[in-house]
């Protein structure tokens, strides 16, 4: 079982599990900011690393794990934390893999921070097919000029009605805006954290209502 790094109160009503992007670990400034930010809003954040990234501590560097290993790692984390009241997601790759297991895992919500709708420079190679039928309540926090899915591109995608997108003005794939925009990276991160925290709380309420309906 992969190591979990926690932030926030142990008795929080909501746990948000976050996986890193393809190139940076779970303790990168971006991941740390969102985990501690969610904790400051009263949620418990749990971070983890896929096997290929965790190997860096032993000086082992390798390419991405296979899709099977990525999925199995996420499902193992969900099992360890328990799906009830759990929101899963993460940065780029981490959020994308979470989106592939969310319905199967039966979690309360899905939170994607900079979803990679297509590879760099390949807007024709979409990664959206599974998002058309997604049933898990989902929030995608996305920079308006993300090179892996800008606002004008995403507007034309066929996405499930369970998905909402919160746009961060002039943000790139890590939500960093240009100086000329008049915004700062910190502003976009704070706005993204606030949106994520609000979504996590709402996902829990929706889950409770669904459970009440199922048992009535």
Contiguous helical run count? 6
Averaged pLDDT: 93
CATH class term: Alpha Beta
- Work out the strand percent: 15-25%
Helix content: 25-40%
Distance between the termini: 37 Å
Protein model, in words:
It is a single chain. The protein has a single domain, classed as Alpha/Beta hydrolase fold, catalytic domain (Rossmann fold), CATH 3.40.50. 37% of the residues lie in helices and 17% in strands. It is built from 6 helices and 7 strands. The protein has a 7-stranded mixed beta sheet, sandwiched between helices. Helix 1 crosses helix 6 and helix 3 crosses helix 4.
Write the layout of secondary structure elements.
Layout: E1 5-7, E2 15-19, H1 29-40, E3 44-48, H2 51-54, H3 67-81, E4 86-91, H4 93-105, E5 109-113, E6 138-143, H5 151-154, E7 163-168, H6 185-215
Parallel strand pairs: 2-3, 2-4, 4-5, 5-6, 6-7
Antiparallel strand pairs: 1-3
Helix pairs in contact: 1-6, 3-4
What's a concise summary of this model?
Helices cover 37% and strands 17% of the residues. The chain has 216 residues and is an alpha/beta fold.
